[in-house]
Design brief:
By secondary structure, this protein is α+β, with helices and mostly antiparallel strands. The chain contains five helices and five strands. α4 runs antiparallel to α5.
Length: 203
């Protein structure tokens, strides 16, 4: 079943759990709310017990005398429907219909806001996980890079101690450059590690 072609009953009032169970899922085009969802327009069904309409058979079975289904649309995208029914009257007044339309519009906006906030929370969570993985990678990489740099410094120091007197001025200068380069590289790696572990604002 394609969930995009079906409506799911998320909330209801005036029905028991047992009564609501058979209509938990409803295909588009079935009953009043399914037709409102399929066509993207409000359907008002008045005097249901006296006006034959195959779309109203389902709500009629619940004793509903008048029923209105609003598609919840935002920028042409269907989010669902919001329906109102009554067992006590055959029709709704114009004021009733205006109020229902306003409520439906507010619900649609609230649903989009909730979806956006959920998506934002998911993105933030993924970003935090990615940052933790990056910090861990930076820490491991920095540790792995420091080891060969320590060896370079150690061997340069050893060569200077054992063979230093055999170098001419240029050779001794080159050994100094190697040692200083390893020191600078070590400082850069340490700095990058520290940078990766502080917050964006602190940076």
């Amino acid at each position: 079943d394609d969930p995009q072609q079906r409506l799911h009953l998320n909330a209801f009032a005036g029905l028991t759990e047992e009564e609501a169970r058979p209509i938990e899922w409803l295909d588009l085009g079935v009953a009043v709310c399914g037709c409102a969802a399929r066509d993207g327009r409000r359907i008002v069904a008045d005097d249901i017990f006296n006006v034959p309409d195959p779309r109203t058979e389902l709500v009629k079975s619940y004793g509903i005398k008048a029923y209105v289904a609003h598609p919840l649309m935002v920028q042409g995208r269907l989010l669902g429907t919001l329906s109102f029914g009554t067992r006590s009257r055959e029709t709704f007044s114009e004021n009733d219909l205006s109020l229902m339309k306003a409520v439906a519009d507010h619900v649609a906006v609230a649903m989009v806001r909730m979806q956006t906030e959920r998506s934002l929370r998911r993105t933030v969570s993924e970003l935090e996980r990615s940052n933790r993985e990056l910090e861990q990678f930076a820490y491991i990489s920095a540790h792995d890079l420091q080891e060969p740099l320590r060896q370079v410094r150690s061997y340069v120091q050893l060569v200077k101690e054992r063979y230093g007197e055999k170098f001419d001025g240029k050779g001794a200068q080159c050994m100094g450059f190697i040692y200083e380069g390893a020191e600078r590289m070590s400082a850069l790696v340490t700095g990058l590690l520290a940078y990766s572990q502080i917050g964006g604002q602190d940076r």
